[in-house]
Structure formats: C-alpha cells, structure tokens
Amino acid sequence: MASFIGLSASQTQFLYRCSLPISSPAFVSSSVHLKKQTPVRRFLVLPIKCSSSGPSQDTESEAETTSVPSSSSSSFSSSLASSNSTYNWRAGIGVVGIIETAYLTYLKLSGSDAFCPLGGGSCGDVLNSDYAFIFGVPLPLLGLIAYGFVTTLSLQLSAKNLPFGINEKTGRFLLLGSTTSMATASAYFLYILSTKFAGTSCSYCLVSALLSFSLFFISLKDVGLQEVQKVVGLQVCMASLVFATLSTSYSNLPSAPSSQANIDLPYFTTEITKESTPFALSLARHLHSIGAQMYGAFWCSHCLEQKEMFGREAAKLLDYIECFPDGYKTGTKMIKACADANLEGFPTWVINGQVLSGEMELEKLAEVSGFQFNE
After folding, report:
1. Mapped to the 3 state alphabet, what secondary structure does 167-199 carry?
2. Which of 23, 167, 182, 244 has its CA 20 to 30 A from that of 10?
3. Is the pLDDT assigned to residue 342 strictly greater than 90?
4. How far from chain centre, in Å, is Cα 204?
5. Element (H, E) at 237
6. Mind telling me which residue stretches traverse the membrane in this protein (predicted)?
7. Do 47 and 18 touch, CB atoms closer than 8 A?
8. Each residue of 237-290: pLDDT tens digit?
9. Please, which pLDDT band fits residue 121 given cuts at 50, 70 and 90?
10. What are phi and psi of 68, to 5 degrees?
11. Half-sphere exposure at residue 300, Cβ-oriented, CA atoms within 13 angstroms
C-alpha cells in the first residue's frame, strides 16, 4: 500500500505560498528494507518552486503591471491634448497677426493710408514714418512673414507632420525662438512709440505687441521652465541680436518724429491774391447751391493752392470747413464735422456724396458736380 505524507498546518501554509511548476510532478520511489519485511512505503515527492511572495502578491503585481501602463497612457493622452491646445491657440493668434500685417503691407505697397482715428497725433504719423521700415523693408511685411511662420509651424506640430525630419521638441524650441524675437521687437517698438511719438496713439502697434507677447508666453509655458533654463543663453543672444539690428537700422534716422511732439501752431488766416475768372465764380456759385463742401486746415499748403485756383472772390463763395479753427498742436483733435467725414487728407471735397481727396482742377470739380458753364 502507498500512502501520502500527512501535512501539518504550517506545512499547508507553506504549500499555499508555493506554486507548482508547469511540468508534471515526478514520483520517486524509495524502499526501506526492514528486518521484519516491513511493507515498502512510497513517498510522494512534490517538486516545488518557492518564491518570496505568494499568489496574493502575484495578483497584486499583475494588477500593478496592468494599472501602470493605463495610468501612463492616460497621462500621455492628457499631455498630448494639452500640447495640441497650445498649438491651436498659437495658430489662432497667428492668423489674427497675419490679417493685420497683410492689411498694413497692402497699404504700404499701394501707397494708401491706414484707416485710423485722425487727430493731432494719428496712427498715420507712425505707420508712415521712417520707423515703419527696417533697412528699407516695410515693417508690416516682416511681421507678415513672422506670423506666417509661427502659424504654419503650429499647425504642423498639431498635426504631427513636421518637415525636414524635425521632431516635436525641436519644433517647440523653434517656436520659442521665433516668438522671443517677435516679443523683443514689439518691446523695442513700444519704446520708440513712447519716446519718439509722445502723445500719439497707434492701435495697430498695440494690437501687434499684444499678439507677440501672447505668443511668447504661450511658447514659454509649452516648453516648460526646466527646458527653457537649458537654452536661456541662446534666447538672450537672439533677443540681443534683434535689439542690435533694430538699433542699427534706426541709428541714422532724422529726429523729425520726436520734434512733432513740440508742434504748437496758433490759428492764422491766409490771403488769396489771384483774381477770380467768370468760370471760377460760376462754378463756386454752383457748388454752393448743391451743398458741396471743402474740408481743409489753415496750415495746409494744398488747401491754399486750391483756393487760389478759384481766386479771391470765388473762394469766399465756397462752403469751406476749417478742421482746426483753434490752432494745431500735438494732441489736438479735429472738430466733429471733420471727424464725422472720415477724412484721409486735406483738402477733401464732398460733392453729391462723392469724396475727392487732394487738389482738384476746376474742370474736374465741374464734371463731378454736373456744372455746365454758359458764357
């Protein structure tokens, strides 16, 4: 007969913490020959493989192994969503910058004036000054290129489709470098605006500065403080290079813009010396009868030349509106009638709802107003 070895409670506990190997257990027989022909006892030897931890710990280990990738995957997904969000924000801000700089670039290339509130110190003084160029290149055009680069790279990072084998980390640092340069340039231009154009407001300049600083801070947050510390020296060098380039470009500019802050012209009248012709007199009466108006300023030489075309007697018949009847100095605003007319320059004619800017030949005024001269 064969019997199994009985197991005590402690041995049972020991077996609970052990695991059987995959292979089948082997039975080893051993016989002990006693003097009285004692029956052979066969012992079941269980090959066991012990470990320092039991099934419960194995279960916990499996649970931990399962939960760690899950937690890591969740963290990665959250980080990815956050990165895409910052890329989209940068792209959106960049589009606004593209629209603004594209408009200003068009005005520069076409020679037109920007639409902005007119007054003693308008944004046109800034946009049409020598400070609106860098080494002869229109500043809005450079801004258009910068905003376009930031927008394009942000969209490519969001789509995980970077060119030239650039990885995401390098793309982030490129954005940080670009926005650092833009923010430095904006800070420099704000300094120019406050020192060279004192008392002058420029809404386009302020909007561009706001966009540039927003892009910079978003890029700074996206890269992270620890990563930024590794390249802080490079960022300082880039900012210094931008500052030096702008300073060199503007070092030889005349000081005219700064002197604009000291303009103070009291109102004065001008005398018209030319005698009016019959045609000029008839045209002036016709313009008055249909309500045609001429807007001008006492210091405007073109306004004086326009009146000289009519002559002394005819000029008195015109419905002339002086936009600065109390004189002109920095910060002086035009009277309400001129401001409501959305003037782009002086002189300006408004005839039958049609706006004509600049000096007009008498024949042109007659044609626009429908005047026919009968000698």
Report:
1. CHHHHHHHHHHHHHHHHHHHHHHHHHHHHHCCC
2. 23
3. no
4. 12
5. helix 232-250
6. 131-153, 173-191, 197-220, 232-250
7. no
8. 999 999 999 999 888 765 444 444 457 789 999 899 999 999 999 999 999 999
9. very low
10. -65, -50
11. 22
The two tokens of residue 336 are 């309400």
The predicted model scores a pTM of 0.50
- Kindly state the tokens that stand for 43: 């012992």
Residues 344 and 313 sit within 8 Å (Cβ to Cβ):
no
- In single-letter form, the type of residue at position 227 comes to E
**Cβ of 216: how many Cβ atoms within 10 Å?**
21
Q: Tokens 């000698």 correspond to what residue? A: 375
Query: Span 64-72, mean pLDDT?
Result: 44
β-partners of residue 224 are none
For residues 244 and 166, the model is more confident at 244
297 with 355: CB under 8 angstroms? no
Q: Are 357 and 313 in contact (CB under 8 A)?
A: no
Helix axes 203-223, 55-110, angle to 10 degrees: 160
Whether 59 has a pLDDT exceeding 60, the answer reads no
Q: What's the half-sphere exposure (Cβ side, CA atoms, 13 Å) at 158?
A: 16
Strands 293-296 and 320-322 come out as parallel
CA distance 312 to 113: 32
- Distance from C-alpha of 322 to C-alpha of 324, rounded to nearest angstrom: 6
Rounded Cα gap, residues 334 and 119, in angstroms: 6
Tokens 């561009």 belong to residue: 208
Q: What is the pLDDT of residue 262?
A: 57
